[in-house]
Amino acid sequence: MEIKPDIVHDATGTYCPIPITELAKVMKKAEKGQIVELLADDEGALQDVPAWCQTTGNEYLGYKEEDGVYHFYVRKV
Amino acid sequence: MKRKAVALYSGGLDSTLAIKLIQNQGIDVLAVHFYTGFCITETKRRRGEKKEDGSHYMNPALKYAAKYGFPLEIVDISDGYMDVILNPKYGYGANINPCIDCRIYMFKKAREIMEEIGADFVISGEVLGQRPKSQKSIPLKIIERDSGLEGLILRPLSAKRLPPTVPEIKGWVDREKLEGIVGRSRKRQLQLAKELGIDEFESPAGGCCYLTDENYAYKYKETLQVEGKITQEDLTLFTVGRHFRLDSGTKVIVSRNEGENNFLYGFAKRYHFFEPLGKGPVAIAKPLHSDYLDEDEKQIIANIIARYSKTVDGKIDVKYNNEEIITGIPFDDETLNQWRISLWKSNQT
User: Fold this and answer.
1) Quick one: which of B105, B72, B73 has its CA closest to B87?
2) pTM of the model
3) Lowest CB count within 10 Å: A1, B110, B248, B308, which one?
């Protein structure tokens, strides 16, 4: 999966719900259609990020894992 | 004109029902969940704890908003929340939960969001007479007044037992379709859950807040009593590890697992730091009256670590501040317990 993000935000080292509150702050600043890449190492974010997208209507594009860090991709709707 | 409401949302059954009742009256509801910094799920995640089925503990607001299709915002209010904890105008609840002040603070934040998005009122799942401290009728009025939301807080589960609010008076919401629940019985809520198709929910007790946890409260009160103050860092550290108070007043925190080990590494430079040369927990220590630990204390801490470590020939070497090696010999539990800060111990004496 090769996705080019417009904004990258690093939330590694934090745990639920901080990666989500961070994502929410970044998404607020993003413009419609932009893609945000969120880095997190809280494994539970695998559940949280898709759930958050569901509750906010933003588009969850998926994730990849590199060296224990999850890279989530979300498009602002 | 379609009306909008902001809902305080914990993810618990009551706030879920409150949202459903209002949504069913054609109101747009935005659920907001506030992160205060005292979140039990956060600690469980940090420790790497999982549920029996292997899934992760999840923030209940996020979980149930997704399940039941509510728009949700999770908002970090931890910055100003510290002051609410340390200086509650209306005092503490059963543990250290400053319930009334906490509600006022959250409703103020909800009011800001209400104004920002152009919503008309705020709803919450509070039930009259359900909890001993914050939710009797007089505090509810104080909460409304101090948060600047007089007449604008609708509590759908107890509405019929409370004075009509602006949304009811103006006819945005039909009061007759709201509930009149009072007291601690959950019977009507469970019946309502069935009627509204809420088939899964968190257990009502506990929730995600440390401040209502009696073990947390015990550590808080102990530190306040011995040290005379609480810092923001203390509030975080109360959620981690086993806590000991040595005779001189030095506080020692020993991790319980790898997740906590990693967490305490973050404090290594600012605290006295102990790390076993082998399999075992790390520890941090904070002297009360000076910046230094004496030799006896260092030995005691090494022996405490040894108690929880895999020893070889009944001992383990412990590195102190990257400066020296101390050989720890495990204490027996009786010796250890004299310094342990625990609610369990206080109940025994």
Assistant:
1) B105
2) 0.79
3) A1
